[in-house]
Amino acid sequence: MSVTARKIEIKGLVQGVGFRPFVYRLAVEHGLKGTVENNNRGVFIHVEGLEQEIEDFLTRLPDRIPEAAGISSIKTFPSALNHFKDFSIRKSRSSSDEITEVSPDIGVCRACLEDMKSQPHRINYPFINCTNCGPRFTIIKDLPYDRHQTTMAVFEMCDTCRKEYSNILDRRFHAQPIACNTCGPWYTLHENGKTEEELENILTRTAHLLESGKIIAVKGLGGYHLACNPFDEDVVNRLRLKKNREGKPFAIMIRDMKTAKEWLEIDEEEEKLLTSWRKPIVLLTMKQDFAPSLSIGLNTVGAMLPYMPFHYLLFEKLKLPAVVLTSGNLSDEPIVISNRTALKTLGPVSDAVITYNRDIHNRTDDSVAFVTGKKERVIRRSRSYAPSPVRIDINTEGIFAAGAELVNCFCIGKGNQAILSQHIGDLKNLETLEFYTESIERHKRLFRFQPQLAVMDMHPDYLSTRHALAMDVPKISVQHHHAHIASCMAENQLDEKVIGVSFDGTGYGTDGNIWGGEFLVCDLNDFNRAAHLEYIPQPGGDAVTKHPWRMMLAYLYHYFGDGITGEKVMPLLKGIPKNELETVLFMLKNKINSPLTSSAGRLFDAVSALLNICRQATYHAEAPMRLEAVADHDECASYPFDTDNAVSLKKTFQAMIDDMNRGVSPTVISTKFHQTVAELITETVRRISRTTGLKKVALSGGTFQNKIILEKTEQRLKLINLEVYSQSSIPSNDGGIALGQLAIAAKRRELGLV
Ligand SMILES: [Zn+2]
Ligand SMILES: [Zn+2]
């Protein structure tokens, strides 16, 4: 039997996830000799041994990788024999400029939870982790991923930990954040000017405080949380006042899967997502009542399972089945990460603050997703998702995509990867803008990124656009809805002409109007606007987003003119203060400060206000979300509409008003309205497909975060034999825009257009 050698190059999510020790153990099982090493390109393996053993090693490798690892490519090359005496793991080198992925944070694994009850030096140790789990992106400062480049550098390993760290057969071999009760970080409870460092006491006290209606600020993996009892209306309301958060729903953490099923409706896919190593917040329908102010006007709540050892330890003491766990910040500021800021800003709004002394370097919020069409739909992409890259077949090197303005993420290009930043937030907030610029600098350093080309939205006033404009590199601007469709195309690896349906709130159009209900014929380079929702004046410009009733009035005035004072319509306007009503009517009649919009978001605002579901919005997209909440998913009749190049809903509004005057319930009207939108999209796409011959349809934009719209539209388009693509791991809202911008810039550069 002959001995041969092979070189193996593996790319993907292979660093910081226990990949090298895994390779080591598998190689030893097959009696192979050689080396495994990380470099900036991925993982490199050199194996020597019997031909058949090498084959078996290669076959089994992809099936047995650590849970949080992901392989994007494996290449093998023949190699000369080096006659290695054993198999070994080589130290990291940081030579090449091509960076492989930085692992996102991984929720604590089952083996560690067991060790937490059995290993003498880690009994109830709240920072337990191993090569397969624990903090990663949140603590890393530079590559390669080694302890001295993380915020664990200040903690010297004890002899026991060092032995485990150095023992190749140990589960914690090269686990960079390895720690124990002797040598690692610890928690501190701050209450009324006193501190407590005994964990047992901290947990007991925290459970007591939560059960007795208090608010606690507690340090999480990527930032602070504010916690309270989700069944106690008084404390939930108090939290709203203190956090200055009027209506936006709060997320909860629920004890375990069994408890979750008692309180929430959970299907198989949702269970998979909840229990995945990423542990995102999943939007789920409530089965039983929580405090009414938890999720005002909605039938869903965002819920997640414990993901830090501390969470598990707390639930051991806590009698409540769940706790509110919302971002530790005031109003729209970024989530707090430093202990000092937490004590200063969260201290006054909470009854106790729990800190720990390992620093968070990269801030991440909890990620948020829902499930529809048996697929995960990420709507806030941050903890445990960022900075996993998206593969693109075009060279993206050196491209910086600035993103949009609301729910901003930016994106950088490295080789054939697009690295989307963690969720940044609303850039109009000064602290968030600082977080944006700081994160750009950190991404440059971490990924050895040198900007060569900047791409931005066409909106001249977006702060992201201004940031890109100030960069000393060539720049291109991209239309907002084209970027949405390109984001969907990039995620689905499409690089051809498609029909793009981009329905969202607001985007700057090439004609200077506010777009948002767009049908594009486009590829990654360019687009044609094939159809759109009819233009409607938007009285007061951006201000309407807080006052959905203004859009209702705009639609009614547009379709019925002075007829809206008639007996059919006038009663529907009851409750709007007379002077405000007159002011807005005056603006509409005289075309004062009333830019034109084709926005789908504004259409949903108008209908939500018309049905008196939401006339004043306290947070972004409240009116459409509450309109969706009253609808049901069953098939039903729809309203008439006209599709021409501009899709008119005059007949829809007439029919809705007739239904209202007949006393038809808001549930029925909302359901029929959702059905109508899915039908008008399908009809318009069918017409475009007939004239262009195109069969692929890409759906994107914030409106496709509406479960009913996404489900019904996908079903109907498939029924007419079109191939439908939608977003899954990349948000369809403005958080996904930067990926589209990057893909468009890469394509234009490839074509020699920039
Ligand atoms: Zn573990
Ligand atoms: Zn130790």
Output the keywords:
754 residues, alpha/beta, twelve-stranded mixed beta sheet, six-stranded mixed beta sheet, 32% helix, binds zinc ion
Description:
The chain has 754 residues and is an alpha/beta fold. It is built from 21 helices and 31 strands. The strands form five sheets. Strands 6, 7, 8, 9, 10, 11, 12, 13, 14, 15, 16 and 17 form a twelve-stranded mixed sheet that branches. A six-stranded mixed sheet has the order 18-21-20-19-22-23, with helices on both faces. Strand 2 and strand 3 form a beta hairpin. Helix 5 crosses helix 9, helix 14 packs across helix 15 and helix 14 crosses helix 16. It is globular. Bound molecules: zinc ion (2 copies). The site of one zinc ion has 8 residues, from helix 3.
The portion of residues forming beta strands comes to 15-25%
Task: Indicate the radius of gyration in whole angstroms.
Answer: 27 Å
**Rounded mean pLDDT score:** 94
Q: What is the straight-line distance between the termini? A: 57 Å
Percentage of residues assigned to helices: 25-40%
State the major sheet.
12 strands, mixed
Overall geometric form: globular
The number of distinct β-strands equals 31
Bound molecules: zinc ion
- Give the class from helix and strand content and strand pairing: alpha/beta
Unreliable residue runs: none
Give a quick rundown of the structure:
The chain contains 21 helices and 31 strands. By secondary structure, the protein is an alpha/beta fold.
